[in-house]
Specification:
This protein has helices at about 10-25, 35-45, 55-60, 80-85, 105-115, 130-135, 145-160, 180-205, 210-220, 230-240, 250-255, 265-275, 280-290, 295-300, 315-350, 355-360, 370-380, 395-415, 420-435, 440-450; strands spanning about 5-10, 30, 50-55, 70, 95-100, 120-130, 140, 455, 465, 475. By secondary structure, it is of the alpha/beta class. The structure holds NADPH dihydro-nicotinamide-adenine-dinucleotide phosphate.
Length: about 475
């Protein structure tokens, strides 16, 4: 019994995580349902560190030092339950099962509660960064008990990405499903970020009239400023790429139907349940969905749109500058919405999540890694009770400064018939939060009229109902 940690499930993610542990000097027990994967891992990468391969679950578990730390990297869903059922009877109180798959946080809560009864710690852990991240340093979001983190944290921090200041991109997020919840919101924000970038591209292409190579250059320039991020960087790479078969820009030969694996949808479904507006993420999920509806798009292809007038070179340059502002302001809004969601879940489930620390561990390793996240970390460090990122002095000033350009971009997009659901939803959210009075007052009047749902008044406490069908006098309702 000598391995520090074990990994079962040795497809790309599990194999790379196991190698990452081994490369950091940890002895790693490795196991996979199909033993050929275990053998090939040791054959190909055995020289990178110390692996203890096992074919039988008993041998695998038996090779782990106590308390046992067993990482499960199998297909999310039923396979995870199957693996838990297989291994849990072999474990002892105090041992840990770490689920690094993309589990739904409610499944994680259920599994944690059930294993807790047996004294086994179940640590639902979000892992971001894809296969490269798993090997070279992912961003890691472990949930589960604080006690489990004491023993597990140092190992996970060891293999995690490091932020520019050297701190590990791994922290204990909170109990039970908190880690998987935060990973889900990470993916939701990733959807929103990608959608906003796609809209910026579409505007530069079809309103400013730039070719993909020039747009790649524009993104490269943006990447030296406040938008500096992994996603902007790879966007420039994709746009600069030429298709070998046709000689055309790569982006022009790819079918324009965006696919999804479902974490964005989970984020929006959960946000609806929590009652948190995440319009940026929702629009991003819907935009992918619209793109995939070939039937609807075909049926609507001949509908009329506005005439598009080409822009002058000077006008196009100025417009591109405005698009940078719109992209940045919209990005601030979608992050603000994502953080609100984490905060609401923290309250709902009693997780006590440190909101700043989430920004800190997303600075490296994950898909949305960006210089920008250090500013979010700083905003929550300055005021842990910040109700929204938009209330932070610096973000408020920047978004305020961007708003004229932001409005100009959205209205130009509308005038040119270029869809910008992300930009428009973000701006609408900003204006809704700012509004002195919202038409929700009228909505309440309508609800009271048709369903006697009652309303509150601006000048008095209590609930009221107007006798709409009678003499229209008002009655207190409670
Ligand atoms: P897959 O999701 O493709 O899963 C394959 C692995 O699951 C294999 O080891 C397979 O074993 C095992 N497995 C499937 N069903 C069972 C079962 N019933 N019992 C035991 N083992 C089973 O692998 P990935 O490496 O892509 O992902 C692993 C997990 O990590 C997933 O939950 C995924 O969502 C998550 N993840 C993936 C990322 C990525 O970029 N790919 C990023 C972050 C998280 P066998 O070889 O015997 O078939």
């Amino acid at each position: 019994a000598s391995a520090h940690i074990g990994v079962t499930g040795l497809a790309v993610m599990g194999r790379n995580l196991a190698r990452n542990f081994a490369r950091h000097g940890h002895t790693v027990a490795v196991h996979n349902r199909t033993a050929a994967r275990t053998r090939s891992l040791v054959e190909e990468y055995g020289g990178e560190g110390t692996f203890v391969p096992a074919e039988r679950p008993e041998d695998f578990v038996g090779s782990l030092e106590r308390p046992r730390r067993l990482v499960v990297m199998v297909k999310a869903g039923r396979p995870t339950d199957a693996v838990i059922e297989e291994f849990a009877p072999l474990l002892e109180p105090g041992d840990m099962i770490i689920d690094g798959g993309n589990a739904h946080f409610q499944d994680t809560r259920r599994r944690e509660a059930s294993l807790r009864e047996r004294g086994v710690h179940f640590v639902g852990t979000g892992i971001s960064g894809g296969e490269e991240g798993a090997l070279h340093g992912p961003s890691i979001m472990p949930g589960g008990s604080a006690e489990s983190y004491e023993s597990l944290g140092p190992l996970l921090e060891d293999i995690s990405a490091k932020a520019q200041d050297g701190s590990p991109c791994c922290t204990h997020i909170g109990p039970d499903g908190a880690g998987h919840f935060v990973k889900m919101v990470h993916n939701g924000i990733e959807y929103a970020d990608m959608q906003l970038i796609a809209e910026a591209y579409d505007l530069l292409r079809h309103v400013a009239g730039f070719e993909p190579a020039r747009i790649a250059e524009t993104f490269r320039t943006w990447n030296t400023g406040r938008l500096d991020s992994y996603l902007i960087e790879i966007t420039a790479e994709v746009l600069a790429h030429t298709d070998a078969a046709t000689g055309l820009p790569f982006v022009d030969v790819v079918a324009d139907r965006a696919e999804q694996k479902g974490t964005g949808r989970w984020t929006v479904q959960t946000a609806l349940d929590l009652g948190v507006p995440v319009s940026g993420i929702a629009e991003a999920v819907f935009a992918r969905s619209v793109s995939g509806h070939a039937d609807l798009r075909e049926a609507a292809r001949t509908l009329p749109g506005p005439e598009r007038r080409p822009m002058s070179e000077q006008g196009a340059e100025a417009f591109a500058h405005h698009v940078e502002h719109a992209l940045y302001a919209s990005k601030v809004v979608s992050y603000a919405q994502g953080w609100n969601m984490v905060s609401a879940a923290g309250e709902e489930y009693g997780w006590e999540i440190d909101l700043g620390s989430i920004a800190a561990i997303w600075r490296g390793g994950c898909i949305i890694r960006a210089a920008f996240l250090d500013r979010i970390r700083a905003a929550y460090a300055a005021d842990p009770g910040l109700p929204t990122l938009l209330a932070d002095k610096e973000f408020a000033a920047e978004v305020g400064e961007a708003q004229d350009a932001w409005r100009a971009v959205v209205s130009t997009a509308v005038a040119h018939g270029v869809p910008t659901p992300g930009f428009a939803a973000a701006l609408t959210y900003y204006d809704a939060l700012r509004a002195e009075r919202l038409p929700a007052a009228l909505t309440q009047g309508q609800r009271d009229f048709f369903g006697a749902h009652t309303y509150r008044r601006t000048d008095r406490e209590g609930s009221f109902h107007t006798l709409w069908g009678g003499d229209r006098t008002e009655r207190p309702a409670d």
